[in-house]
Design a protein that fits this description.
Order of helices and strands: HHHHHHHHEEEHHHEEEEHEEHEEHEEHH
Largest sheet: 9 strands, mixed
Strand order of the largest sheet: 7-6-5-9-8-10-11-12-13
Oligomer: single chain
Strand content: 5-15%
Structural class: alpha+beta
């Protein structure tokens, strides 16, 4: 699996096990030296210094905001010490060795102390940059997110439903994906009384971890608390069944949701045809008639929607921006969501769209991140109809009603009336007043942003 920026360096227990194996001769190194009268190998001077630094680093509290800057500094020192060992012993980097070695030689190298030290140094510098960005993120947040209650208040405000706006923002259950500076696919629910975020018993592990944090007796901001979680440390043994990777209902966090990707296409309508614009390798802009056939086999969501008859043709995710531009890309769960297309900003509508040779064959408002309503889809269909881009016999599927229409049927239809059973009253849906900032400590007072 690709190494992620939040991944920590080797655990102290694994490091000590490695150095013991080296001393007993079961781990190779270009720096190995042994006197004839000694019963074991001696650790190189650089490795002894690295050992002290790794021990010091792991003694720092990973879930304390106060240790973030110190941890980043220690990681920088570990990175420099690792590099010093490699330079002093004239050990090449792993890519050079891989290119110049036979497969069996490279496999043997990957079991050596040299490879582990090079890997530790690489991870240490990447992790230091991660922590430094975390410090910056916490210090620059308007609400601070320096306390759990601040974040709860923010998420509750996002749970309120607007019944009049022509724009729709990310749902409260996924807004943490945008809050996270690395845009990991974090999901949560708001409890029935709309008081606090609650966790999920299944799904991806960072969503489960968020629920654990929400229920925990801790004042650490979520991303700081996560520093002591197996997602960052790689150690799960003492963290309970819900956080164990081998638990059947939890998927390991494998990456981030991509925001601002060059693969996202902007569209334009000319003479009843939908065109897309893409940047080529020579930095020229290429214009082609839009076709979503490329989603076949490349998007599990597209394949599923086509298989069950929701769409007659492969579909892309789309987001209709506030200024009227349609952005689109192949939907890939955990990587490219509807939120990716406009970096989580408000939209006029979003969903899935099937296009063949520049003509729209079907469109819907199937977007779990934005959850546009009937009227948002109707506005979008009116826009497409006014520009004559619908193919003959095009279909419109409205997700609230789980119903498909012809274009004319949909434009003439009234929005579905929700069932009264379990429906909240206007008073229950009324947005609560935002908490007063009077007396609330600033990020600077809490030690961030300095």
């Amino acid at each position: 699996m690709k190494e992620m920026p939040w991944q920590d360096i080797i655990s102290l227990a694994n490091w000590r096990r490695l150095t013991e194996q080296f001393e007993h001769g079961s781990v190779a190194s270009a720096a190995r030296k042994k006197r004839w009268y000694q019963k074991s190998y001696t650790l190189p001077r650089n490795i002894e210094a690295l050992d002290r630094q790794i021990e010091h680093y792991h003694r720092l509290d990973k879930r304390s905001p106060d240790t973030l800057k110190m941890r980043a500094g220690m990681l920088r020192m570990i990175g420099a010490q690792s590099n010093s060992f490699l330079v002093e012993n004239r050990i090449q980097d792993k890519n050079t060795i891989k290119q110049s070695s036979a497969p069996d030689e490279y496999a043997a190298y990957k079991k050596s102390l040299d490879y582990i030290v090079e890997k530790i140094g690489r991870r240490a510098l990447r992790k230091a940059a991660y922590i430094e960005k975390l410090v910056e993120h916490i210090g620059q947040q308007d609400l601070g997110f320096t306390t759990k209650q601040n974040l709860f208040e923010y998420l509750k405000s996002k749970a309120e439903v607007s019944f009049t706006s022509n724009f729709v923002g990310l749902g409260a259950h996924v807004v943490m994906e945008r809050v996270d500076p690395w845009h990991r696919p974090i999901e949560n629910n708001i409890d029935a009384d709309r008081q606090n975020p609650v966790g999920k018993a299944e799904g991806n592990e960072i969503s489960v971890a968020f629920g654990r944090w929400a229920a925990a007796q801790t004042d650490a901001p979520f991303f700081v608390w996560l520093e002591g979680h197996g997602i960052c440390t790689g150690i799960y043994e003492d963290q309970g069944l819900l956080e164990a990777i081998d638990h059947g209902s939890i998927q390991q966090l494998s990456g981030t949701v991509k925001y601002g990707q060059s693969s996202t296409l902007a569209t334009a309508i000319e003479n009843g045809t939908l065109y897309v614009y893409s940047m080529q390798a020579d930095n020229t802009l290429q214009k082609t008639s839009f076709d979503t056939q490329a989603a076949k086999g490349a998007s599990a969501k597209s394949d599923e929607l086509q298989k069950f008859g929701n769409h007659p043709y492969p579909v892309y995710a789309y987001a209709w921006s506030r200024d009227g531009v349609i952005f689109t890309n192949i939907h890939q769960t955990g990587q490219i969501h509807h939120s990716s297309l406009l970096s989580g900003k408000k939209v006029q509508c979003s969903g899935m769209i099937a296009v063949e040779n520049g003509k729209v064959r079907s469109v819907d408002n199937n977007s779990g991140h934005y959850q546009p309503q009937f009227r948002h889809l109707k506005n979008f269909v009116r826009f497409l109809q006014a520009n004559n881009v619908f193919a003959p016999n095009a279909r419109v599927r409205e997700e609230t009603a789980k119903k498909a229409y012809t274009v004319q049927e949909f434009l003439a239809a009234a929005p579905p009336v929700p069932k009264k059973t379990g429906r909240k009253t206007i008073a229950e849906l009324r947005k609560p007043p935002l908490p007063s900032k009077v007396g609330r400590p600033t990020a600077g007072q809490l030690g961030f942003g300095k």
